[in-house]
Amino acid sequence: MSTETIDSAPEELPQYCKVDELCQGLKAWTNPQNSFRVLRLHMSADPAKRTPEFLKEAQSGLPRDKYRREFELVWRSFEGRPVYVDDWNHNVNVANDFLQYAPHLPVMRGWDFGLTPAVIFAQLMPDMRLFVLREICEEEMGIERFLDIVTTRSREWFPSAKRFVDIIDPAGFVRSQTDERSCMTIMSGSPWFLKPVPGVQNPVARRNAVVTFLQRNVRGHPAFLCSPACKAIINGFDGGYHYAHNRSGQLREYPEKNLYSHPHDALQYICTRVFDVDLRPGAEGTIKIAQPTYRGAGGGRR
Prior knowledge:
Elements: E1 20-23, E2 26-30, E3 37-41, H1 52-59, H2 64-72, E4 81-82, H3 90-93, E5 107-112, E6 118-124, E7 130-137, H4 143-157, E8 164-168, H5 183-188, E9 197-198, H6 203-214, E10 217-218, E11 221-222, E12 224-226, H7 231-240, E13 242-243, H8 261-273
Parallel strand pairs: 5-8, 7-12, 8-9
Antiparallel strand pairs: 1-2, 2-3, 4-13, 5-6, 6-7, 10-11
Helix pairs in contact: 6-8, 7-8
């Protein structure tokens, strides 16, 4: 476990009040609700704890999430274990600026349904890097209203996009017991006329599909890059999407269902199919190919 991936953990500071840095490792702010003065004392206030030797010793034998809580004051891992604790690096996988989309490439939309629906917008670049561009997360909302919102935001955020590829929760192909319609049926009908394909259902395969991107680099650049616009995805990676403990203290087999799990499910559906879907202009549906290919304006592949 290298210090490079841990000692630069993002600080958790209030967003809506002025934070004063009194000295290295010591920050202060005033709580706007009760006017209490709050001090945050980090270990780096002690010069002896800034050295690579100390950091290496502190990390030795500790899981990454526990080190972040005990030494870096990062609490987003909650009471459990983050799903991607050994593979995600906030400072590497989050872009410094908002990512811009490429109008000539397809925009992939991963969908998770239910009354807390979520959609993730992503693009696969020609060098096989996955850019996560935008997210929509709603609560207590039906599929028709959510489809209208996604359609409106898609036009607003990606006005020149040539094609959208929709990869959905496989449960969306199952008919409702009340009106015998499935989410897929609704999506493919008027006025949306979408042609969704199912993501992979297996939880292990879904997680591994994301890890495959997190663990790769392309010419020194991360193969997975997330725009800072995607707050729910980022906070989920930072610990909100996690395995909780059961009553006996053991980690549960599946991640906790919460406000972070839905967008992360949607992201996983994209990652499970991104190398199966033909992304060339005019292509539709899912086919088995070695990797996506893009056809340029002159008809040649690159």
